[in-house]
C-alpha cells in the first residue's frame, strides 16, 4: 500500500524519475510479489485495475508491462456483495466473510497471497488479524486530507505520550526490511508481531566460591 507521512492512503506523485521507478519496482519484485499467485481486492480497486492493467500487457514501460502481465495472470478474488460480474481473466467474486475465504485459501497448496486494496478492505483484514506481513511505500509528503490508511481504534485509552505494551487497540509489527528510494520515499516491510515477546530467563544467582 501507498501512504503519505501524515498517514493517508495515497501516492504523492513527483517528477519523472526513471531511477526511482526502478528502485520501487525492484523492491516489489524482490518482496511482496516475488512468490505470489493470488490477489485479494475490494470492489473499487478491482474495477480500477480491471479497467487499466489489461490494456498495458504490451506497454513500452517494462515495469508497467511486467505488472500488467503479473496481475492478469494470477488468481484475483474480489470481495463484494454488489459487484455483478468480474470479467478480467482469472477473476472471481466472493460475497461471504473475508476471514472465511482467507482461511480456505491458506488451507490450499500454493504460493503467497497479496491483499492489494483498497484502504477500507485492508483495514478489515488488519482488524481481524488476517495479515502476516505489512508492506508500505511511504511518500515524503504531507497532504492534509484523504482516507486514512489505518483505522483509529476507539478502545485505545491512554493519558500520556506512551502507549503501553498490550494496550487495547495497539497492534505491533517487526521490521523485516527497509529500502530508501532516491525520490525520498521509503519501502517498509513488517511482519505481524502476534502475541507477547518471550520473556528473558531470570539471571541465575551468583554463588560464592
Distance between the termini: 60 Å
Question: What would you call the structural class?
Answer: alpha/beta
Tally of separate helices: 5
* Helical residue percent band: 10-25%
3D structure, described in words:
The protein has one domain (2-8, 32-151, 168-192): 3-Layer(aba) Sandwich (Dihydrofolate Reductase, subunit A). Helices cover 24% and strands 22% of the residues. It has helices spanning 18-30, 43-50, 62-73, 98-106, 119-127; strands spanning 2-4, 36-42, 75-79, 91-94, 112-117, 133-139, 173-180, 186-192. The strands form two sheets. Strands 1-6-8-7 form a four-stranded mixed beta sheet, with no helix packed on it. Strands 4-3-2-5 form a four-stranded parallel beta sheet, with helices on both faces. A hairpin with a 5-residue loop joins strand 7 and strand 8.
Amino acid at each position: 500500500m501507498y501512504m503519505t507521512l501524515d498517514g493517508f492512503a495515497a501516492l504523492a506523485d513527483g517528477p519523472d524519475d526513471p531511477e526511482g521507478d526502478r528502485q520501487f519496482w525492484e523492491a516489489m519484485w524482490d518482496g511482496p510479489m516475488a512468490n505470489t499467485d493470488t490477489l485479494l481486492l475490494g470492489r473499487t480497486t478491482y474495477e480500477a485495475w480491471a479497467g487499466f492493467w489489461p490494456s498495458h500487457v504490451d506497454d513500452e514501460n517494462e515495469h508497467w508491462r511486467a505488472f500488467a502481465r503479473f496481475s492478469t495472470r494470477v488468481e484475483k478474488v474480489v470481495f463484494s456483495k454488489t459487484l455483478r460480474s468480474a470479467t478480467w481473466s482469472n477473476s472471481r467474486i466472493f460475497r461471504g466473510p473475508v476471514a472465511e475465504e482467507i482461511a480456505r485459501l491458506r488451507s490450499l497448496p500454493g504460493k503467497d497471497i497479496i491483499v492489494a486494496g483498497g484502504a477500507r478492505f485492508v483495514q478489515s483484514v488488519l482488524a481481524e488479524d488476517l495479515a502476516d506481513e505489512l508492506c508500505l511505500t511511504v511518500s515524503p509528503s504531507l497532504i492534509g486530507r484523504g482516507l486514512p490508511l489505518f483505522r483509529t481504534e476507539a478502545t485505545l485509552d491512554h493519558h500520556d505520550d506512551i502507549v503501553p505494551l498490550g494496550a487495547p487497540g495497539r497492534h505491533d509489527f517487526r521490521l523485516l526490511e527497509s529500502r530508501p528510494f532516491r525520490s525520498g520515499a521509503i519501502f517498509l516491510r513488517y511482519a505481524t508481531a502476534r502475541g507477547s515477546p518471550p520473556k528473558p530467563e531470570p539471571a541465575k544467582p551468583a554463588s560464592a566460591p
